[in-house]
């Protein structure tokens, strides 16, 4: 049983459930975050249907079960995720959770999708706080920095605007997020603004482990490390990936084979994907998108009980006999190239 974190609120939380949760020191922030955290990319139509009632129930049950870190962004549903999350948090004590949002990625139209300017960053922070109905967030992250025309604008405009927000008390900490880990490492190395957290997604998963080679560097800087999307944005879930997924054909085919093998054996592939991430050292929290209580229950079950013998057998087969066939396990550069092509079109 773990110690109670500072987010524990007597009378609100289920103390036994909170004591069952594992908490990790979140870099140099002074925060202790739950090993499993709540992603809200599905609090909009990005991953199919969602309902406000289910989102509310999920947030409440997640918090009561000791999850204390929630991540959102203006990009998710073009403000819908933040708005829905704001409604879900009504009436919940503010000290019961940490919350992270983002700046720089916004609209579906490629020509308006990204804006790394200081002006837009300032406006975005205020809009996010309004939608979330909060006075401050705990972490404000620059979203998907690899899409910037050059890292210089992130370093000279976006991050200084986030620092300004930090000085105004609108955020406690500053973070960066992205897909290519090398770009995140370069940004952290070059930044004159102190960066507290780094989020990379799908890069410490059953599919791909690129982040491992960068962990010593991130640890040396005492960064808070978020391992997001261990289900690889649906690739390693029974529902499969959404239409917009940037995977290569080969990755898509092999992951389909893995999903079908699991289905045939009556095993939920999502459990295997989370199990892998939970057993990897380095990151302080594993950020998983959940927009219904069934998903939450399934993930908490893996966290607390691990896998059955049958599931372990299927896990080993998927890991060693199916996913191991892939020579290239990432789609680095694919999305960025598509983005610039459509901007110039």
Can you offer a commentary on this structure?
There is one protein chain. With 345 residues, the chain is α/β, with parallel strands linked by helices. It has helices spanning 15-20, 52-64, 80-88, 110-113, 118-132, 151-167, 181-190, 215-220, 249-264, 269-278, 293-305, 309-322, 334-344, and strands at 23-25, 32-34, 36-39, 69-71, 98-103, 137-142, 171-178, 197-201, 224-228, 285-289. The strands form two sheets. The protein has an eight-stranded parallel beta barrel with strand order 3-4-5-6-7-8-9-10, surrounded by four helices. A two-stranded antiparallel sheet has the order 1-2. Helix 2 (52-64) packs across helix 3 (80-88) and helix 5 (118-132) crosses helix 6. The longest helix has 17 residues, at 151-167. It is globular and about 55 Å long.
Question: Which properties best describe this structure?
Answer:
10 strands, 345 residues, 14% strand, 42% helix, 8-stranded parallel beta barrel, two-stranded antiparallel ribbon, alpha/beta, 13 helices
Question: From the helix content, strand content and strand pairing, which structural class follows?
Answer: alpha/beta
Main beta sheet: strand number and arrangement? 8 strands, parallel, barrel
* Main β-sheet, spatial strand arrangement: 3-4-5-6-7-8-9-10
H/I helix tally: 13
The residue ranges in which pLDDT falls below 50 over 5 or more consecutive positions are none
Secondary structure: number of strands: 10
Query: Rg to the nearest angstrom?
Result: 19 Å
Q: Give the end-to-end Cα distance, rounded to a whole number of Å.
A: 57 Å
- Bin the strand percentage: 5-15%
Order of helices and strands: HEEEHEHEHHEHEHEHEHHEHHH
